[in-house]
Design brief:
Layout: H1 17-37, E1 40-41, E2 47-49, H2 50-54, H3 59-62, E3 67-69, E4 75-78, H4 83-91, E5 101-110, E6 122-131, H5 136-152, E7 159-164, H6 165-174, H7 179-190, H8 194-203, H9 208-218, E8 221-222, H10 225-235, H11 240-258, E9 265-268, E10 281-286, E11 295-299, H12 303-306, E12 314-319, H13 321-331, E13 342-347, H14 353-365, E14 369-372, H15 379-388, E15 393-397, H16 399-403, E16 406-411, E17 416-421, H17 422-431
Parallel strand pairs: 1-5, 7-9, 13-14, 13-15
Antiparallel strand pairs: 2-4, 3-4, 5-6, 6-12, 7-10, 8-9, 10-11, 11-12, 15-16, 16-17
Helix pairs in contact: 1-5, 1-13, 5-11, 6-11, 7-8, 8-9, 10-11
The protein binds histidyl-adenosine monophosphate (HAM).
The site of histidyl-adenosine monophosphate (HAM) has 25 residues, from strand 6, strand 11, strand 12 and helix 13.
């Protein structure tokens, strides 16, 4: 057997305790947000029919899917995102559930991306989808929820890059450029290949007026949503559907601003997303010094219909857990230290092991994270190990103290200790932390 099996498969990662803890912290916060906003969790399979996942995912991600034939001869794939699976649910098993319907998912996803900073072949997302409303307040809710989540994990600095796919599609529709070609343009824009996108439109038969408008549009961007959307409106004034889209975008941003959430928006008219199901507002989360998006989302009003579930408008977002964790590490590594105490119970000799077990159970019942010395080491050895592992309090259970119903509590940071009764123990730990 070669030794290659000792390494993880390229692009796959082991998450050791520190990494796993960070990931779970964000996952838990994302779950709390789901509860606060009324999004109920659904758990869908990792393996789905290829056809479902590939339907509107866009060329770029489609070719990076893990696709295989299962032993029953079905063409299946590992999910590269949640939206298709959740939309399938809404088009089938949940088709008669009254709308609005808010659904949350969290878990691992798979894309055969080129491994690099923040880009893995197995990664994690939290995913929120709101079904049933085509009103701007639904879009605004998704934006506010996203902002709320980022604040709650304590990310200090970020912005939401935002646009509306109806602006570009509105122009291209009027030029008679078919959907498939439009998708190609979007893919190029997603990769910031504006020149190539213009060339493509020219070759697809776009008029000079259209090319001139697009050229100006691709340069329009900025932090003042009202100003930028007004400029966009002026450029697309002759394209009624594009103009409608700009109005919708201003309304959505306006609502989010009125909410008092103080979301930091950056409107960019040449911004597109690779996924093909979007029909309205689209956005991505960015942090300074990281050119990869921490999350993305938008409105997709036609996907449920495509899956045979009737006309159900939808809007959603998927914050990427791995990348949020990376951004947090960059911005505020110190703030991420666990704020909880960690207690280590050390029996002095074999006779006190039973009592040490009992004390440990009591501590856990009170909610303290408690480990018990199980290596039979001397107190001093156990203490130096506790120091190394970031234990905050040691509880030493000795035979003499035990007889009086007492233990020795050592504050590992201050390196001081005192003898306390079991009743006092909990209070003392809380007070010294
Ligand atoms: P997406 O932009 O493809 O959107 O992915 C969302 C987030 O997942 C990204 O911003 C990023 O944080 C994370 N992500 C994607 N690929 C990788 C990777 N290879 N490694 C690490 N993180 C990655 C969607 O998936 C849509 N389903 C979002 C959505 C929900 N739209 C509407 N509802």
């Amino acid at each position: 057997m070669s030794s290659a099996y000792r390494r993880t498969v390229r692009g796959m990662r082991d998450l050791l305790p520190d990494e796993a803890e960070k990931l779970r912290f964000i996952e838990e916060t994302a779950r709390e947000m789901a509860k606060l906003y009324g999004y109920r969790e659904v758990i869908t399979p990792v393996v789905e029919h290829y056809e479902l996942l590939a339907a509107k995912i866009g060329e770029e991600t489609r070719k990076r899917m893990y696709v295989f034939e299962d032993l029953g001869g079905r063409r299946v794939a590992l999910r590269p995102e949640f939206t298709a699976s959740v939309a399938r649910l809404v088009a089938t098993k949940m088709v008669s559930v009254p709308k609005p319907l808010r659904l949350f998912s969290v878990g691992s996803l798979y894309r055969y991306d080129e491994p690099q900073f923040g880009r893995y072949r197995e990664f994690w997302q939290a995913n929120y989808e709101l079904f049933g409303s085509s009103n701007p307040e639904a879009d605004a809710e998704i934006l506010i929820l996203t902002d709320n989540l980022l604040r709650r994990i304590d990310l200090q600095s970020y912005h939401l890059k935002i646009n509306h796919v109806g602006i570009l599609r509105g122009i291209l529709d009027e030029e008679g450029i078919v959907e498939e070609q439009q998708n190609n343009v979007m893919q190029l824009l997603d990769k910031k290949q504006w020149e190539e996108a213009l060339r493509f439109v020219l070759e697809a038969g776009g008029s000079q007026r259209c090319l001139d408008s697009l050229k100006v549009l691709f340069g329009l961007r900025g932090k003042e949503p009202a100003d930028v959307t007004q400029e966009i409106g002026e450029v697309v004034a002759d394209y009624p559907r594009a103009l409608e889209a700009v109005k919708n975008l201003s309304e959505v941003i306006g609502l989010a601003e009125e909410s008092g959430a103080e979301v930091d928006f950056y409107v960019e008219a040449g911004f597109a997303r690779g996924l093909e199901y979007y029909t309205g507002m689209i956005f991505e989360i960015f942090a300074p010094d990281m050119d990869i998006a921490l999350g993305g989302g938008g409105r997709y009003d036609k996907l449920i219909e495509l899956f045979g579930g009737g006309s159900v408008p939808a809007v959603g977002v998927a914050p990427g857990i791995d990348r949020m964790s990376l951004a947090l590490d960059r911005q505020e590594p110190a703030a991420r230290k666990s704020a909880e105490e960690r207690v280590f119970v050390i029996p002095v000799g074999e006779d006190t092991v039973g009592e040490a077990f009992r004390v440990s159970s009591m501590l856990r019942k009170k909610g303290f994270r408690t480990e018990l010395e199980t290596m039979g080491r001397s107190v001093s050895r156990a203490l130096s190990d506790a120091d190394r592992r970031g234990i905050t309090h040691a509880v030493i259970v000795g035979p003499r103290e035990m007889k009086q119903g007492k233990v020795v509590l050592r504050d590992m940071k201050k390196r001081s200790q005192e003898t306390v009764s079991l009743e006092e123990l909990f209070e003392r730990i809380r007070k010294t932390y």
